[in-house]
Amino acid sequence: MSQKSAACRIALFRRGIPPKFSGNLCAFPLPLSNNDPLFSSAFHSSSHKDRPFSSKPRLNFSSINDVEDALCLFRDMVRIRPQPSVVQFNKLLTVVVKMKRYPVALSLFDKMRRLGAPVDVITMNIAINCYCLLSRVDFGFAILGIFFKRGCEPDVFTFNTLIRGIFLVGEVAEAENLFKKLLSDKLCEPNEVMFLTVLSGLSKA
After folding, report:
1. Tens digits of per-residue pLDDT, 84-111?
2. How far is CA 200 from CA 56, 77, 180, in A?
3. CA 162, CA 173: separation in Å to the nearest integer?
4. Domains in the chain: boundaries
């Protein structure tokens, strides 16, 4: 354990939050939202629709210069048979997120689900992060419901993103309560990043 991590645990203990945890994950019952106004059912750009489709397009993510390039590549990816791996789709979503086009990334995520493209825990973590960055942590929790519906287990990154999102919208008590629940119910093993996130959020309260 690093000195920084130890210091974090001591500080949390003094606040009455004992650092007891386990690596085991279990169900975390939360409602799944069916109505998501940030999801888009279609892309309204016209420029990428006119580009020729190649049955074997080169998945060169470094060549993406704007969101139009990303949308064009996504359109090709969902039409390729066999489809690219979930790793490739996650790379594309990450590129869009780095552009800070969070609603677009969420629209791609929704389209992936509807078209049967591969989705994994990393994909859903990306979606949760986008919602939190848009100050819609409530929809982030709805994505958490999708985790369990698909039989997936959220990881420490999932919960850390949600805790950070709750702090961002000013719900300090809710963030602290979630962290305590993670510890008491042994839902995940907090890492140093989570300890720092909680301490930073509490210090700004």
Report:
1. 999 999 999 999 999 999 999 999 999 9
2. 47, 40, 16
3. 13
4. 36-123
